[in-house]
């Protein structure tokens, strides 16, 4: 069993690559020459980073259940399914882009799939945050800096 979670260290790279790739893919609709390739490379980077991220998430599953409790087990399962689905969506985008390279008719499909992928990765990340930062696990923050602030709402 792993005693230190690796998944949280890796997860931000594919998220950033995928989301930036979606942004670039939208720009590519109007300026396809450079931006189509750039979006493809960003998606490929997200996939390459997403595979070890998924695998370390699988390894960290027992750690998360032990550390955060059984009440997060269902959230972990949904998080896992959405992670796989996200990888499948972005892999499909790359395959479509490679097969139908210069087909203008595919641009809208690729943008729609990209937006679906962005939604999936955002919700997957949200669930990951719920696993880590659920209400039972947050320590009560107490700061005493000697500064008092009063807010009056008129």
Automatic annotation (TrEMBL):
Organism name: Robertmurraya kyonggiensis
Every DUF2231 domain range: 4-135
Domain of life: Bacteria
Transmembrane annotation, as ranges: 6-26, 38-55, 75-96, 108-128
Keyword Transmembrane helix: yes
Keyword NAD: no
Protein name (database record): DUF2231 domain-containing protein
Keyword line: Membrane, Transmembrane, Transmembrane helix
